[in-house]
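Final report, closing paragraph on structural work. Over the funding period we assembled a curated collection of sequence-structure pairs, and we close with a single example.
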Amino acid sequence: MIRWFYSILLLMLSVVPSSVQAQAIDPCFGLAVEDCTIIGDASANTFANLSAFNFTFSLDFAVSGLEALGLGQDTALTVAGSGSFIRQADDGTVPASVQLDLTAALMTSAGTVDGTLAARLMDDQVYLQVDGSEWRGIALETLLESSLFSAASLTQVPFGSSGQTSDFNLADTLSGVAALLDTPGFITYARLEDENEGGQARAPFSFSLDFTPLFASEVFRQQLDQALALAGTLDPSLESTALIAPLLLEDSTLNISLTQWVNAESSLIDRLALMVDGSLDLNTVLGTTEANRVAPITLRVDFQVSLSDVNTALDITVPDSFTEITLAELGLE
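Its predicted structure, as stored:
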């Protein structure tokens, strides 16, 4: 869990749309060359030189419209937390020490469940404390051998494994990608107005994806049909998906916005905001009329994280005593 948290944190902090090796694709997606250099250098600098920091973060997640369709409970989750990260120079499974403290509340029609979690990772040992109870510990190596991480491993299905052959062509694929990325209104990349907070100057960069014009584009529909046709040859059970998928996209929306703040002094990305808004309209698939239309399923994610005390001397301590916890107790055997 901690390893995934760190990997995702650094990936999101320093993500910059990478160039595809095709001349038709602008790696800066319309961003001015000077600005593209600033965010690109900051991304590289963040990956290479971010060795220690404190952080605070918040997460708001909500999905609605499920209950009206009998597909589950509408759910809202709020999480707020803080922690520290220190990169270590050893050869451990994870060469880092991490501290994480958070509070969370899960709200459904059945009520609200809230609680706290404290976690520590040091010397390849994970320590957990739930709702202020006693500390429990487990070796990271044991945790990584659990069913949780086994299930997360990807299974590669080679083309032709079901007796089918693939007409995959790299040049055609890149050309298709370039055409999709060039869909008007799909990608917006911009440098926002510079900010100054507490005497610290930052330059925010916003990378946004609006999938509505993409879903409506003929090029996307053609690419989707081809992908679903290929999926159907690999797994016949997916053939019905090829019929339903275009209908699901008729009135559905998806917007993803990632804003990164470049610290002018350190040339590091030390703040991030990720927003996801989407809706899935099932009325076309269900064949409803104006009189019995159902509300769409909606999704909203708001994740924000800020770094402080970057590359300063930090200290993470582990509990003086703890009780070993087994994979069985974690439900991960």
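The longest strand covers residues 52-64. Residues 2-153+169-330 form one domain. We thank the funder for supporting this effort.
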